[in-house]
Amino acid sequence: MTLPEFGALEAWVALGIALFLIGRAVFRRARPDGGAADDAARGSPLEWKDLLDDRLPQVARLSAEQRTLFHDRVERFLKQKRFVGCAGIEVTDEMRALIAGMACLMILRPDAALFPALRQILVYPGPFLVPVTEPDEFGLVPDEPQERIGESWHGDRVILSWPDVEAALDGDEVNVVVHEFAHQLDDESAAGEGAPRMADYARWSDVLRSEFARLRRQRRPPVLDPYGGESPAEFFGVVSEAFFQRGMELSRHHPELYGVLRDYYGFDTA
């Protein structure tokens, strides 16, 4: 091999490496927003831990052991679940961390799984419209779509309105993240319909059945959203919201219900 030939070979190798690196950069930039699940953990763990400590008051009520478990599950959630921005919204690392944190507060039981069926979280810049496929009480299916702030699709995905997530972070009684992820927990159980996976259903069944009937009788319940009277599944979503957002009031007006939820979620919010 002559010297000029060797120089030409070096040039081709350098060009190949450069094209490879450029290709990688273009691929990373071209991925869908939600495809960058690993990017959510680019900041040091201390950054998102401080964020969750600051924005989620429930974290202060965790034991040291629970806090370690919580941080581990948030980190795994951020790595494993795909976030997708819809209708023009850009999902930031802060948004990912806050949604993950709110969801992972619900799975601090040692035997809890990390929402195994969930693949992606879709985030909208506000309430969104969905077609209605289920008939109403008269057996009719409305022609017009309904406005929603959240949905859960039988384990596969959760859809959230970001302004409503922020409202919950600011203390609003409605917590769309807790409500939709309660449906995720519900779907993990073969029983379903307000009976998530657990070791003993006896006390759960007795208390929730009684409280569900009580909610349906009341015209103006003091704590629980009347929407919980729609079905046992929606009742579980509503009482979970009350546990996380209005723990003190729930414990005062519904002490047995509060006790069941405290035992299920594993810590006090009152």
Pick out its properties.
270 residues; alpha/beta; four-stranded mixed beta sheet; two-stranded antiparallel sheet; 10 helices; 9% strand; globular
Short structural summary:
With 270 residues, the protein is an alpha/beta fold. It has 10 helices and 6 strands, in the order H-H-H-E-H-E-E-E-E-E-H-H-H-H-H-H. The protein has helices spanning 3-30, 45-55, 64-80, 93-104, 162-169, 176-187, 202-217, 232-245, 247-253, 255-265, and strands at residues 82-85, 120-124, 128-130, 146-148, 150-153, 157-161.
Which strand order do you get reading across the main beta sheet? 1-2-6-5
The ordered H/E elements are: HHHEHEEEEEHHHHHH
Main beta sheet: 4 strands, mixed
Count all strands and give the number: 6
Shape: globular
How many distinct helices?
Answer: 10
Question: How confident overall, as mean pLDDT?
Answer: 84
List low-confidence stretches: 1-42
End-to-end C-alpha gap: 80 Å
Q: In which range does the helix fraction lie?
A: 40-55%
In percent, how much strand structure appears in the residues?
5-15%
Q: Structural class per helix/strand content? A: alpha/beta
Gyration radius over CA = 23 Å
How is the topology of this model organized?
Layout: H1 3-30, H2 45-55, H3 64-80, E1 82-85, H4 93-104, E2 120-124, E3 128-130, E4 146-148, E5 150-153, E6 157-161, H5 162-169, H6 176-187, H7 202-217, H8 232-245, H9 247-253, H10 255-265
Parallel strand pairs: 1-2, 2-6
Antiparallel strand pairs: 3-4, 5-6
Would you write up a description of this structure?
With 270 residues, the chain is of the alpha/beta class. The chain is 50% helix and 9% strand. It has 10 helices and 6 strands; from the N terminus they run H-H-H-E-H-E-E-E-E-E-H-H-H-H-H-H. The chain has helices at 3-30, 45-55, 64-80, 93-104, 162-169, 176-187, 202-217, 232-245, 247-253, 255-265, and strands at residues 82-85, 120-124, 128-130, 146-148, 150-153, 157-161. Strands 1-2-6-5 form a 4-stranded mixed beta sheet. Strands 3-4 form a two-stranded antiparallel sheet.
